[in-house]
Amino acid sequence: KPPHPERGCFPEFPAQSAADAGLRVRLEFLQDCWLETQVDGAPRIAELRFQGSSLEIQAERWVVLTLGNSKGVGVEVNGVALALPPAGRDGSVRDLRILAPSAPASPPTT
Length: 110
Description:
Blueprint: E1 12-14, E2 23-29, E3 33-39, E4 45-49, E5 54-59, E6 62-67, E7 73-77, E8 80-81, E9 94-99
Parallel strand pairs: 1-9
Antiparallel strand pairs: 2-5, 2-7, 3-4, 3-6, 6-9, 7-8
């Protein structure tokens, strides 16, 4: 289940390469950032990442991210950098939903 359906719509970012059946999401932390991740319906994981660190996430169907300082994070999906929508001021929270090419139109909702 994707988190916080009551928060409204997530910008959706379908994976760019149909050759990849799944997803490889790489996050590069340019500034300190807290984040929550949910992968293919597994329980959510919350953590703090520091400037200079990176995180790689593997998924079969979808990844939902909540970034606590979205301006301070670079996101790459299957080797392709995502141009995130403008985040506003530093510390802006952003929810992202990334879907595999073979995934249903959206993750299941509650």
